[in-house]
Structure prediction request, 396 residues.
Amino acid sequence: MKKCYSSLEPVLQVFWVFFILGLGSFGGPAAHMGYFQRTFVQQKQWLNDTDFTQATALCQFLPGPASSQLGMFIGFQKAGYWGAVAAFIGFTLPSAILLTVLAILDRQNTQATWVYEVIQAAKLLAVIVVADALFGMVRKNLTDRLTIVIAVLTAVSVFFSSGLSGQLMPILIAAALGYVLSFRNAVQQTAHGSESDRMKLNWFPMVIFVLMLLGLPLLSGTAKSWDILNSFYQAGSFVFGGGHVVLPLLEPLVQRWVDADTFISAYASAQLVPGPMFTMASFLGAASMPESPIWGSGLATIAIFLPGSLLLFAFLPAWQRLLQHPRLQLSVKTITAAVVGLLMGAWVDPVIMTSIGSVWDIVAVCSGIYLLKYRNMPVWCLALLLVGYVFAKAIF
Prediction:
């Protein structure tokens, strides 16, 4: 019994930490990565800064919810595959439950009146936490002119673009640049060509991913549950970067079950809750099956997250081996700089752009950064101060 508990202890620890994060992680993928960096790199030291930035790059390459995939990677590093499952459930459960409830209340035209002030405080907190994470990542990873230039250009590129081009192309260009420069700098090349050094996929999750991608459309039409499972699985298979990018792909898939007003309500509600944007599927799944909203929510939520999870663990062995290749060491450095730039651009838009609405908000954020970074104020204390500030501003 004691041995069984000791083997479950790291899994339960992963679940609890991610559950707490899931209750308060507002602000979208960039903010989530800021929370993860502060919690798992700076505080708990479950992984180092290099592993964190490289895993972030991998999650940007793959379709699916980038921050949730990063969370599953962290859970996997701590407690194996069950740790990855625990991280996913813990981080996703709060927003999935909240959005399912909001979908049910939306049908009854019931709305909360005090939610917006709390959400505004949470958004300001996200600006502060992401800024704190970026300070540490910039100091550790932008160490020369090359990495600084790559980060700045990536941030500018992200700010003026969207979708796949904004998320993926800067990382690809940075990787290619590092690879080319490695030849000019005469980087040592060793150990290539042996059987053990070849890039290998984890074929089991890859096979499951392909079978479901091809097989679910064949079952679609036999029952509404299969229709929902197929529609949300297809959406999760082709959305890069996660977040708001999922909107144009989801809309045509669910328009036969929900009207335009319900779809917009789902999007707005997803902005009001913590956790990943992909849990918008929880609202839409519940609204698509009003006769059984919890079942519909569960089906849609699992279906939209599953493809990205399978692809993450299919490509993880090849990615780790690729980044360890001697010829690609400079590419690892330039990829890391691009990831930092990616988060810098996302910190400006959408984190800052959707959070700060007045000069007083700027003062509150600057004060919060000072208290967090230089006075070591706990995040929960800072959150309480921001809630008080927002309610005071609303009154006066």
Observations:
- The longest helix spans residues 66-107.
- The chain has 17 helices and no strands.
- Residues 187-197 have pLDDT under 50 and may be disordered.
